[in-house]
Amino acid sequence: MKGDRGLTPEAMLAGYRRGIFPMAEGRASPVLHWVEPRLRGIIPLDGFHMARSLRRRVRAGGYEISLDRDFAGVVAGCAARDETWINAELDALYASLHRAGRAHSIEVRAGGALAGGVFGVALGRAFFGESMFSLQRDASKLALAYLIRHLGDCGFTLFDTQFLTPHLASLGAVEISREDYLARLGVALAGEARFGSVALPSAQDFAQARTQTS
């Protein structure tokens, strides 16, 4: 890892193209570090595990899903933890990338209030998932499930989760080698996909989609 101050949005995107990404050691840390995991977490877009309980939650409704309606709110929700790697500089960088059409969010609302969401950065046909949060049960799972469906519908081929956590593994994430990741990244960057180019499915259509169950 290498420390970096004064990172620009352009340099940040160049890092993603090389297979590295920035993180801060904490909210108050003024230094960003480039990270390149030896093993990389990804979720195959045809391999999301929608448990029956989550499928029932989708059918039950009572929530609203949206794209890029409250990007800043999702980033703030992801950073609102006792320990976070999102410092003020990263917050500003993500906002700049969002204005440039490179960073996106999916929001979950319940009763009109933001209940959870996920955000990330899009380049070519690659989507780099940054973080997700949940204020209500299953909200982040719903956001992630809709995101994966949306990425596939829009023509993305790579969903990078950076690391593999037990939570992500339960949803179908796997670890691949750095070499494998860079090869997949190269293929994804050679193409083009546009986030938001198709509408989100209705809850009924989504619940009936051919998604693996467990």
- List low-pLDDT spans: 210-214
At CATH level 2, the architecture is 3-Layer(aba) Sandwich
Total domain count? 1
Spatial strand order of the main sheet: 6-7-8-9-10-4-11
Number of helices: 8
In total, how many beta strands?
Answer: 12
Summarize the main sheet: 7 strands, mixed
Query: What is the average of the pLDDT values?
Result: 91
Label the structural class.
alpha+beta
Describe this structure in words.
With 214 residues, this protein is of the alpha+beta class. It has one domain: Leucyl/phenylalanyl-tRNA-protein transferase, C-terminal domain (Aminopeptidase, 3-Layer(aba) Sandwich). Helix content is 36%, strand content 28%. The chain is built from 8 helices and 12 strands. The protein has helices spanning 9-18, 52-60, 71-79, 88-99, 139-154, 166-170, 178-189, 203-207, and strands at 3-4, 21-24, 32-35, 39-42, 49-50, 64-67, 103-110, 113-123, 126-134, 158-162, 174-177, 212-213. The strands form 3 sheets. The chain has a 7-stranded mixed beta sheet, with helices on both faces. The protein has a 3-stranded antiparallel beta sheet with strand order 1-3-2. A hairpin with a 2-residue loop joins strand 7 (103-110) and strand 8 (113-123). The longest helix is centred in the C-terminal third of the chain and has 16 residues, at 139-154. The termini are far apart.
